[in-house]
Amino acid sequence: MIEAALKFLIQTLGNLFVIAVLLRFMMQLFRVPFRNPFAQFIVAITDFAVKPLRRVVPGLWGLDWACLVLAWLVELLVVTAGYWLDGFPFALAGGKVWPVMLGLAAVKLLSLTVYLIIGLTLIRAVLSWVNSDTPLMPVVYTLTEPFLRPLRRIVPMVANIDLTPLVLFILCQLVLMVPVLALQRALLGSL
Description:
The chain crosses the membrane at residues 6-26, 61-85, 97-118, 163-183. Keywords: Membrane, Transmembrane, Transmembrane helix. This is Integral membrane protein YggT, involved in response to extracytoplasmic stress (Osmotic shock). Helices cover 77% and strands 0% of the residues. It is built from 7 helices and no strands. It has one domain. The chain starts with a helix and ends with a helix. The longest helix has 34 residues, at 97-130.
């Protein structure tokens, strides 16, 4: 019972931090203005880990790769801790288990990224109906627009309602169900 509670706590806190680091990476990738209070909050809670890692992992092509490496390493810790708390025999598995753990961490990171896109799109849809003047809206708009804009070329408006968030939800769920699940099963099958 204590192991389940500890596993829940590690997964929750670890994944929340990974989401914050992924948000930081995406905000830089999509050029979100960092003068926004929400953007400043994300930078403030991730700076303690990102800044030291930048000395080791340089930026390339104008992107902060230290954020992605940090997210992947934290997810690796979360996955490894989860298996350890479940009683996985790391000592008996030998060295072949670590490439699988690295792969599982990458798959979990991809899965969290897709869930982050779903969550941001949902927040955008709700805010557009409730309060489009909130300080959070410019950040959410900038982060979701690169995913929704290509879909608007294909999906027409129906009675002045934009259905592209719904289409994006469906596409994200398909990504989670087919390639992400297949990768996870393939990695777990090699244990």
